[in-house]
């Protein structure tokens, strides 16, 4: 072993640079590990001439210290630069940020609840078009030609047919026309609900909007009676609003039912004093309606109802303005 050998090693070690942890590991294996260059040289001291041992030991220890120091410095540098490049992206030790996954619209939630109540009572489901003709929306439902509901005030007329007014096209003003379509299509016993969107050309207030949702119901068979209708509605209300719900039924009028009723529930919110709110109309299917679809009113009877999904939802959640359903304001929606 010559002094110049050691000198050469010192230079090599001093000028070494590691780009990665792998480079550094190569360095460690080459110089510092048990079979590395430095331990190898240290082991040779014993075989060297006596007078050389002192300077060899001195030089080699210096070399060893240098290599160790180099190793530690490089390791620190590498770890630091790795950490700072992670920081630039994200702190991998943080828990993941929760993602907004959205939720069902409150109307959808109420509709799902209403459906499951009626499914349990043995009802099936049906639907019909939102763009209706005059015949299904009015005539077959026993609306006289001069009935105010046909007035431009209430109905969005889409197309007038001068030759045949029964073909006038309207945005359906209620889901009752689906009853007509269903009774023409199927034979009793019929027991179905018909949910859907309806449109009215009305002034917009906290309780009414130009479009809303209804769930129509129809039960037609031999011997269906008014007591069953009342019991169905009470049972519905208790399941959707809870047993303690305050409700009332009032006699009413619809061209397509006789007798007819309306049901109100007590509506109270944080911002509003309690008041009655109408949530549905119902009645025994009018004989003229049964005749219009080819059923004999002497043989068959039935009851029907039409419920307002928005108002039912307003009472369930204490919502004080129907317009909130259609604003798409996430501050409202994320509460459900
Ligand atoms: N169609 C009525 C409305 O929109 C509600 C209604 C009343 C539906 C009585 C019915 C019924 O089926 O029997 O106001």
Structure, briefly:
With 336 residues, the protein is α+β, with helices and mostly antiparallel strands. The chain has 11 helices and 10 strands.
Write the CATH architecture name of the largest domain. Answer: 2-Layer Sandwich
The secondary-structure class comes to alpha+beta
| Beta-strand proportion | 15-25%
Supply the number of structural domains. Answer: 2
Radius of gyration: 42 Å
Give the number of helices: 11
Quote the average pLDDT: 92
Biggest sheet descriptor? 7 strands, mixed
Give the number of DSSP strands.
Answer: 10
What global shape is seen? rod-shaped
Low-confidence spans: pLDDT under 50, at least 5 residues?
none
* CATH third-level topology of the largest domain: BirA Bifunctional Protein, domain 2
Give a written overview of the molecule.
The chain is α+β, with helices and mostly antiparallel strands. It folds into two domains: about 90 residues; about 180 residues, Bira Bifunctional Protein, Domain 2 (BirA Bifunctional Protein, domain 2), CATH 3.30.930.10. A seven-stranded mixed β-sheet has the order 1-5-6-10-9-8-7, sandwiched between helices. A three-stranded antiparallel β-sheet has the order 2-4-3. β8 and β9 form a beta hairpin. The structure holds 3,4-dihydroxyphenylalanine (DAH).
How would the blueprint of this fold be written?
Blueprint: H1 3-15, H2 21-32, H3 37-44, H4 50-89, H5 106-120, E1 124-125, E2 131-133, H6 134-137, E3 157-159, E4 169-171, H7 177-185, E5 190-199, E6 211-221, H8 226-241, E7 247-254, E8 257-269, E9 272-285, H9 287-292, E10 301-308, H10 309-317, H11 330-333
Helix pairs in contact: 1-4, 2-4, 5-10
Bound molecules: 3,4-dihydroxyphenylalanine.
